[in-house]
Write a structure and sequence with these properties.
The protein has about 375 residues and is mostly helical. The protein has 3 domains: about 180 residues, no CATH class; about 80 residues, Serine Threonine Protein Phosphatase 5, Tetratricopeptide repeat (Alpha Horseshoe), CATH 1.25.40; about 90 residues, Sufe protein. Chain: A (Alpha-Beta Complex), CATH 3.90.1010.20. Helix content is about 55%, strand content about 5%. The protein contains 15 helices and 3 strands. The termini are far apart.
Length: about 375
């Protein structure tokens, strides 16, 4: 979006949300925007393992346009609440979580699900403050896209804001979650190998060849990261010998502390690959089983309870992961495993790949002890 368009959009959207917050239901006519429709509930995501509704691009575009210009149903129940000492202009010169906006989001909003909706309201308010600064509007819009997507799974509103921020991968994720895989694939056509979120989305969409091509390119410079992703793509595709080869490449020794985390996960993935390949629920033995795999901060320990040959529960009993990453990963991953009764086909969560990968691999390690 061009500078003047983005700034004009920000001004119009600012007027919209101020009017809605004041109890009005229409966009002020001077804003140059169409009338806003009544606030609606977020589009629901498909249940884990369930069928996803297919929508055309025109249908998704209409939903994004409609929902993006209205407040969510919960809007009036959530206060605008933030420290009065907080600088709302993304000023990097101020320090501390009570003054620096980025620090406040990281330390107070993101780790605390009870404050996630407050965070969304705050970012809408920030738009009114930075409305004349293109770079800050784009950053705020991108943050809103992330929040609507990850915090409340409101993919239509997330897409609306990702579009303003020109975040093609975020936008593709929303189109896919809303049922338009074709448009999502189009948006990913020019994805970079450095965009690991795009690679993860390709894996989730079943675009395994594209995912492996991109992650192989990444693996040339960062083998532990790139080949771990290639292994995950091959594993989900059922290409287990190929996955084994990639995990072996990814597990090579490195002095880089960050890449070492992926090498450690690759070693556990190698140990548990047979669980993915040969998993048979009918062969499960009742009991309580434990598994562990290193995440971002350290070991993630899980307990799996099997009863009547079914996975009754998966519980993370100990971890040191950052609150935000753990929160967006654990609920999604654990629910998917229990719903599907399987670790096969479970996708790592973009933005929390080490944490979600640790939960998946630790669960697989626990399950490896349940079968003969």
């Amino acid at each position: 979006m061009k500078t003047n368009q983005l700034l004009g959009f920000a001004a119009a959207t600012t007027m919209l949300f101020l009017s809605l917050a004041a109890g009005q239901t229409k966009v002020p006519p001077a804003a140059g925007q169409p009338k806003a429709s009544p606030a609606s509930a977020p589009a629901s995501a498909p249940a884990a393992g369930g069928a996803q509704k297919v929508m055309t691009t025109a249908e998704v575009d209409a939903l994004i346009d409609k929902d993006g210009k209205t407040t969510p149903a919960w809007w009036n129940q959530v206060p605008l609440n933030y420290p009065k000492t907080l600088d709302l202009t993304w000023n990097q010169g101020v320090k501390g979580p009570q003054a620096n906006l980025g620090s406040y989001l990281w330390s107070t909003i993101q780790p605390n699900p009870a404050k996630w909706k407050e965070g969304i309201r705050l970012m809408h308010h920030v738009l009114t403050v930075v409305a004349n600064d293109q770079q800050k509007v784009a950053r705020t819009a991108d943050t809103l896209g992330m929040m609507y997507c990850n915090f409340v799974q409101d993919y239509a509103r997330a897409a609306f804001w990702y579009r303003q921020a020109d975040n093609q991968t975020g936008l593709a994720k929303c189109y896919f979650r809303l049922g338009d895989a074709k448009q999502a694939k189009t948006l990913l056509a020019n994805a970079s190998s450095s965009d690991t979120d795009a690679i993860l989305l390709c894996i989730e969409m079943g675009e395994y060849d594209l995912a492996i091509r991109l992650s192989d390119q990444l693996g040339q410079s960062r083998p532990q990261r790139g080949y771990m992703l290639s292994g995950d793509a091959a594993r989900k595709a059922g290409r287990y010998p190929v996955a084994m080869s990639y995990y072996q490449k990814a597990s090579q020794t490195t002095s880089d502390n960050w890449l070492k985390k992926f090498a450690d996960q690759a070693k556990v993935a190698l140990q548990t690959l047979k669980v993915f390949e040969n998993y048979d629920p009918a062969r499960l033995k009742d009991g309580t089983y434990s598994g562990s795999c290193n995440g971002y901060r350290g070991p993630v320990d899980v307990r799996v309870v099997i009863a009547q040959k079914k996975i009754q529960s998966v519980t993370v009993v100990q971890h040191k992961e950052d609150g935000f990453f753990y929160n967006i990963a654990s609920g999604t991953i654990i629910k998917a495993i229990v719903d599907r009764q399987n670790v096969r086909g479970i996708d790592a969560v973009a933005g929390a790949t080490l944490t979600s990968g640790a939960i998946i691999n630790a669960t697989a390690k626990a399950l490896s002890a349940t079968t003969p």
